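check these tokens.
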Amino acid sequence: MERSSTSSSFTTDLASDHPFDNNKNPMLNRVVLKNLFGLIPFKLEEFKNFRLVSHEWNDCAVKYMHQNTWLKLNKRDETHTTLMDSISFCLQKSHQLNPFLKGTLGFKKYLISMQTLGSMNTYSFLFNFWEKFGVRMTHLEISYTQMYPKDLVRIMLELTPNLQVFIFKSNHIYDTTPISSNARNGLVWDEGFRPQESSINKNLTHLTITNVDIEHDGLPFNWIDMICHFPNMKNLKLGLEHTSSRLALSSLEEFLQAVILVRQNCGQHYLAQLEHLDIMEIPEYMYLKRLPGNILLLLRKLAFPLSTLTLDIGTRHNGGDRLALKNTLELHSASLQNLTLYQGHWIEPSSFHT
């Protein structure tokens, strides 16, 4: 018994002195690894290397690799059916051929860049793709893609309920009768806009819509509807591409008027956390003479708690324009930290930081 007790004690001492013992090496402690991988935005290749360190690193790295890296789907040279089949094939094989991708695929950030996306009404596998993976998405970027307007609305309002960041840039929207009202004809509140509590996405904080090529004079959604579904936006960038700067200004005015209507009917908390606003990114081939005073008036009326503001004020200003801009900046002076003013694309922007 005495020999057995000594042997047991000796074995325990060896284990405690082992350099890879979790109690002695903090870099093998799961709490430390959780904070390491959770706080530092490592790249995909780095995560792949981390999995080779030890079983503990592999188990922990895989989870955060899924959460922090973007899954890029960007085949652009195939037909509709073959294209979507290749997406499914890619997702399945990435699990089968890479042993570190064990368990259910947990990717949450998706970048989709394709020549064209067919209609969900025509191709059921498109709907199946969004139904299966849309609920997992927290970050989504769609760029350099042609798509149907109704599909865009379904993706934003129905099929990605956990989205936190949505970037829609340099895309083409097929011709359709626009759903949105035109700002110059006025916006009208309808109780049908009021969403069910379960359909409101309170997680979405970043929205970017830029360089959208629209075949019709209007976006394929109503801004009132969008704002009702996304009340907690903090970072908004709008660069609405139209056939003329007049239509781009009209779309911007429609958005600002929609915020006012939603606040009047649903509460002042809608977009009350908007801190970063980048508006009126006019394409280089267009010429913005002046930013109308009513745009600045609406900004003052809404009084967003802005810390960052970027806008194009045009190349021509009169005394009233300068006064309107001055009043707008004074209103936001307490919170504003970064200001960038464009005067057309031929003049370097003026930037101010505090």
User: Anything to note?
Assistant: Residues 1-20, 77-82, 93-104, 178-186 have pLDDT under 50 and may be disordered.
